[in-house]
Amino acid sequence: DAKTTQPPSMDCAEGRAANLPCNHSTISGNEYVYWYRQIHSQGPQYIIHGLKNNETNEMASLIITEDRKSSTLILPHATLRDTAVYYCIVRVRNTDKLIFGTGTRLQVFP
Amino acid sequence: DAGVIQSPRHEVTEMGQEVTLRCKPISGHDYLFWYRQTMMRGLELLIYFNNNVPIDDSGMPEDRFSAKMPNASFSTLKIQPSEPRDSAVYFCASSQGVFSYEQYFGPGTRLTVT
Fold first, then answer.
1. Quick one: which of A73, B38, B61, B70 could link to A20 by a disulfide (CB 3.0–4.6 Å)?
2. Taking CB atoms and an 8 Å limit, are B99 and A96 in contact across chains?
3. Which of A91, A96, A100 minimises the CB distance to B42?
4. pLDDT tens digits, residue range B32-70?
5. Mutate which: A31, A41, A45, A98, vs B, most B CBs within 10 A
6. Could B91 and A102 be called an inter-chain contact, meaning their C-beta atoms sit closer than 8 Å?
7. Which residues of A touch B106 (CB under 8 A)?
């Protein structure tokens, strides 16, 4: 079972920041948080991952709370092409398994 | 690199027929994953390999499903006999190294069993 909880859907205006929350209250100390997205009819795509510290790359920023029980993925300037399902995943400890939940369907509108 | 390659992209078959899905991982990647995606169950991990050896097949639904990886550049997922409930999109993904954070997914095979 997925160890994360996400809202089923969100809207965001084009050009604005999209903030996607994720709850992972049962996360263990050495488990990483991953974010993937799936654009319609395509395979999932890796976005970012983190353990404790905030992370940023060319696609997004990841903010992890100090107690690590939740995180937020931030798309700083959403575009129409960011419309997708976003998955927050906690990797199963000591394995390479990613258990995908139901994700958040982000709709970016003009 | 061309990325993960899957074939066929679409497959329509009749119930009871054998179906074989194929995957070519990214060169140099030593992990290969097979997933299935349906509206009802979402994206499920079926099985994964490391260095051509199956590591975890706990997600394989039943004995009708089998997966092989005869070499580092090729894997198959076979369903025999197929049933309508096997209709789904099947994704193959590969990654590099131990606990690699990024899995690269192929475009998927859309299977329809009538």
1. A73
2. yes
3. A100
4. 999 999 999 999 999 999 999 999 999 998 899 999 999
5. A98
6. no
7. 43
Q: Within chain A, how many helices (H) and strands (E) appear?
A: 0, 9
Pairwise CA distance, residues B60 & B77, whole Å = 10
**In the predicted model, is pLDDT for residue B1 greater than 90?**
no
Q: Is the bond into A76 cis (omega within 30 degrees of 0)?
A: no
- The answer for residues whose C-beta is within 8 angstroms of residue A79's C-beta and 6 or more apart is A14, A15, A108
Question: What is the rounded CA–CA span in Å between residue B107 and residue B91?
Answer: 7
* A44 Cβ under 8 Å from any chain B Cβ: yes
Query: Tens digit of pLDDT for each residue in A30-58?
Result: 888 999 999 998 999 999 999 888 999 99
Stretch A65-73: mean pLDDT:
94
Measured in angstroms, the CA of B41 and the nearest CA of chain A are apart by 9
Whether residue B82 has pLDDT greater than 80 = yes
Q: Is A7 touching B (CB cutoff 8 A)?
A: no
